[in-house]
Amino acid sequence: MSDLLAGLAPWPTGDFSVFGEVEQRPLSKIQKFVAAFLGRNWVAIPHVTHQDDADITQLEERRKAHNAAGGTKLTAVPLLVKALADGLAAFPQFNASLDPASGMLTLKKYVHVGVAVDTPGGLLVPVIRDCDRKSATQIAEEVAALSDKARTKGLSMAEMSGGCITLTSLGHIGGTGFTPIVNAPEVAILGVTRARPVPVPGDDGGIAWRQMLPLSLSYDHRVINGADAARFSRFIADRLAAADLFT
Fold first, then answer.
1. What's the predicted TM-score (pTM) here?
2. Which of 19, 31, 50, 184 has the smallest number of Cβ neighbours within 10 A?
3. What is the rounded (10 degree) CA torsion for 13, 18, 22, 25?
4. Is 112 one of the annotated active-site residues of the chain?
5. Which domains does the chain have, with CATH numbers?
6. Splitting the chain (247 residues) into consecutive groups of 10 residues, what average pLDDT does each group show?
C-alpha cells in the first residue's frame, strides 16, 4: 500500500475559517473504521463497474402477492441475495479471494452474502451465511434481525466476517446507478438502485411497460475480466426475471 501512495501529493490542509464560518465534527468510530478499509480497497483494487438492467415485473407481482398472503414480508433484498447465491455457484471466480503477495486465488465452497446496512453511525455489512441452503423467507428474517442489531450497536465482528460477495441497495432512496467499492477480500459487489417503469416493444407490436431494476456490479479486474462480469450481471438479471427465487 505504501508503494501505491508514495508518489501522491500530500493531503491538502488549511484553516478553512478564513473563507467563512465552519464547524468541526469528529467522525464516528464506525466511520473511521470503514474509511480506513474503503480507502485501502479503492487504492489497491483496480475497480471496474458494469451496469445492466433486470426486468423484475413478474418478480414484483409475485412478491406483492406473497406479502398480501401474510407471513414474513419480503423486500427485494432477500430475492437479490438468492440470485447472488445462484450466481456464485454458476461463476466460481466470483466466490474467491486473491492474495496479491503470493498470487494465489482461494475459491470458496461456501456461499455467504454480505448485506450493507445504513445505520446512524455509518455503514455496516452483516453477513448472511449459507444463502444457497435457505429460502427467501429465511433470508428475509435474518436480514431483518441482523439489520436491527446493526442499528442498535449489537452486531459482532463475527457477524460481519466471512462474506463471499456484498449486496448494497439504494432502491429505497433512489438513483439510477453508482460505483460501489469492492469489500476486500471479496472480489465483487452488487449495487442496486430504484426500479423504474420502462417502455419496451410489446408482443402485439405496441408498447409494454416493464419494471426495470438497475444493477451496478463493481469487480476486481485482477481476478475478473469484463466479459465474465457482463455474463454474471446478465445471469443475475435473468434469475430475477425468472421470478422463481422464493424457495
1. 0.94
2. 19
3. 30
4. no
5. 49-242 (3.30.559.10)
6. 73 92 92 92 97 98 96 96 99 98 97 96 95 98 97 94 98 95 98 96 89 99 98 99 93
